[in-house]
Amino acid sequence: MSAIALCLCRAGHTVYGSDRSFDRNENQTMRDLLTAAGICLFPQDGTGVSSAVNTVVVSTAVEESIPDVRAAREQRIPIRRRAEILADILHAHTGIAVGGTSGKTTITAMVGHILYETGRDPLMINGGISINTYHDRSPSNVILGRGDVCVAEADESDGSIDLYTPAVALVSNVSLDHKPIAEIILLFESFLNRATLAGVINADDPSIQRMHLTQPHLISFSANGQPADFRATDIQIEPASIAFRVNGLPAHLDMIGRHNVENALAAIAVCSTVGVSVEDSIRALASFRGTGRRMQVVGAVGGITVYDDYAHNPAKIQAALRALKAYPGRIYAVFQPHGFGPTRLMKDTLIQMLLTELDERLTWIMPDIYYAGGTTVKDISSRDIVIPLQQAGKAAYYLPTRPEIVAFLKERLQDGDRVIIMGGRDNTLTQLAEAIVRAIGGEK
Predict the structure, then answer these.
(1) Per-residue pLDDT at 239
(2) What is the C-alpha separation between 416 and 94, in angstroms, rounded?
(3) Given its phi and psi angles, is residue 83 left (phi above 0), alpha (psi -120 to 50 degrees) or beta?
(4) Pairing relationship of beta strands 16-17 and 198-202 according to DSSP bridges
(5) By C-alpha distance, which of 269, 241, 6 is closest to 135?
(6) Low-confidence winner among 21-35, 45-59, 107-121 (lowest mean pLDDT)
(7) Residue 61 confidence (pLDDT)
(8) Is 107 within 8 Å of 160 (Cβ atoms)?
(9) CA–CA separation, 37 vs 53, rounded Å?
């Protein structure tokens, strides 16, 4: 939403907005970025919705009951979904829509970075914060370029991906997240077939192989030896980076995790559809610094490293854990589920994955489920995931509050350990990571 707001503001629209996290004095960096751009922010109490407003745009994270929506209904002001506005922007450009249940934020950032570094001056609208700086702006989830290409993260969680008919559609992978697998497969299948220039797919993903694809211009990538247009080979895990070859050409990322090789392949394949060579893409990615809360190092004290990561479904959590398990040392993984509905949907799959991944080096910790507000049925708890793990003899703990987690870790951490904080939607998880760094450093 913030990226779209900045894009519309740059295009000359007057933009107002509200966010209940701002009302709780959270996300101040984003608040400052928006106000500096000339966007007027109101409390989410309906006062910002007046006769001066001709359209109210809502995200899927808010309910019909919030005061802003009620005010719009009462004043008969048209209401549009976030995805409808994003579709308008995409369709006014050579649109690249990045889909998939894992990795799409990083891939979108990588594509935006490649296009920027190769002089395409793209518009990028992303769901995560790029660490790199573009057009002398602070790190953000938007690149306000004036070229003809727009790359955007396409969300499937609410079905709104059906609104997009991009020039290029990418599906990085398919796994359990917000919807049942069969439903997600149909969404992505239709998405790929609608692309007017090309569809880009992961040749390693079994769910993608099950799709009925009529797209005449399919481009594939593989990091696991499958026949594909773009292949990664000779993957070498390094202390804080990863090296590999793309179609025989050497490549290097200042990131960890085999999944980021797949992300890079996807970005390289996508950029090839708009004329960027493999060599130029590899060269650009060498300066890519990543995205916020994607295996981001928050701090390192006394030989202990603390990571912050957005992983929030079983596939993403598994990828993050495996990235850390590729290196020696113990791992403490803290996962905060991102809502009661998603937790209910993924509980059994998450437990089965953890029964495989948890070993003598890995300790699993869960606080209470994140509640963003609104109406929901609170009929599940983090304890419902931890108890079966404990019964199977795994080192799993339910620690409801953050002070309990910090105290638990401070007592146990030693030289060589890694801590990873995982969870979606709640940007204050970064503050938990920072609190752990301060605790192991002896600060209060």
Answers:
(1) 86
(2) 47
(3) alpha
(4) unpaired
(5) 6
(6) 21-35
(7) 79
(8) no
(9) 18
**Hey, where are the domains in the chain?**
2-77, 84-285, 296-440
Q: What is the mean pLDDT of residues 394-401?
A: 98
Residue 442: pLDDT band by 50, 70, 90 thresholds? confident
Residues 429, 293 contacting (CB under 8 angstroms): yes
Kindly provide the residue ranges of all beta strands, DSSP E only, lying in 204-248, ordered along the sequence: 218-222, 230-237, 242-246
Q: Which pLDDT band holds residue 178 (cuts at 50, 70, 90)? A: low
Mean pLDDT throughout 126-150?
92
Residues 362-376, mean pLDDT to the nearest whole number: 86
CA distance 27 to 25: 7
- Cβ atoms of 153 and 161 within 8 Å: the answer is no
Q: Nearest to residue 21, comparing CAs of 412, 428, 400?
A: 428
Q: Do residues 127 and 141 make contact, with C-beta atoms less than 8 angstroms apart?
A: yes
Q: Quick one: average pLDDT of 60-78?
A: 93
Fold held by 84-285 = UDP-N-acetylmuramoyl-L-alanine:D-glutamate ligase (3.40.1190)
pLDDT tier for residue 142 given thresholds of 50, 70 and 90:
very high
Retrieve residue 200's tokens: 């880009």
- Rounded Cα distance, 188 and 101, in Å: 10
How much is the mean pLDDT over the chain? Answer: 94
Q: What DSSP designation does 161 have? A: G
1 membership: H or E segment, kind and range: none
What average pLDDT does the segment 122-148 reach?
Answer: 92
Give the architecture-level CATH label for domain 296-440. Answer: Alpha-Beta Complex (3.90)
Please name the residue that has the structure tokens 């948890």.
358
Residues 84, 246: Cα–Cα separation, whole Å:
36
The CATH class, in words, for 2-77 is alpha beta
Containing 81, the helix (H) or strand (E) segment is strand 79-81
Give the Cα separation of 156 and 179 in Å (integer): 9
**Residues contacting 356, CB < 8 A, separation 6+:** none
Give me the sheet containing 418-422, strands edge to edge. Answer: 296-301, 304-309, 418-422, 331-335, 362-366, 396-398
pLDDT of residue 139: 75
Using DSSP, state whether 244 is helix, strand or coil: strand
Residue 94 near residue 196 (C-beta atoms within 8 A): no
Q: Is residue 322's pLDDT more than 80? A: yes
Q: Which residues of 88-125 are buried (b: 16+ CB within 10 A; e: fewer)?
A: ebbeebbbbbbbbbbbbbbbbbbbbbbbbbbebbbbbb
Strand partners, 98: 153, 170
